[in-house]
Design a protein that fits this description.
Layout (H helix, E strand, L loop, with lengths): L1 E13 L12 E13 L11 H13 L4 E2 L13 H13 L5 E9 L2 E5 L5
Length: 121
């Protein structure tokens, strides 16, 4: 099994619903995102997927949320735009392009990360 990853960043504001503490107030992050694709078959060039293709598609998804108030976006209406839900949003958008998307990880800080692997029921 092979796995490739692409990393990018976006900036956004949000506040958490049903939360008691500082994060219930509007605040922002410079989020780091890492997505991975897995597969067992390489193409004739010996690659699973071109890094530039994965990164380009990731950046298209991040453009949808970059410099936005996440609470105002339809996807997050009435739900906390937590790192967990942001990771799921990114995963679901990329799954429309790549059937072998494996995970989406979102860092709010250098030491705090949430990862979504998809619904594997």
């Amino acid at each position: 099994m092979y796995e490739i990853q692409a990393e990018s960043m976006f900036s956004a504001a949000h506040h958490l619903l049903n939360y008691e503490g500082k994060c219930e107030n509007q605040h922002g992050h410079n989020f780091k995102v890492v997505v991975s694709v897995r597969g067992s078959v390489l193409n004739d060039a010996g690659i699973l997927l071109d890094f530039k293709v994965l990164k380009s598609e990731l950046n298209k998804v991040l453009d949808l949320i970059d410099h936005k108030d996440l609470n105002e976006l339809e996807y997050f209406k009435g739900k906390s735009p937590s790192s967990e839900r942001i990771a799921k949003f990114i995963f679901e958008k990329l799954a429309l392009k790549f059937e072998n998307i494996y995970s989406a990880a979102v860092w709010e800080t250098n030491t705090s990360c949430a990862v979504y692997y998809g619904d594997k029921e």
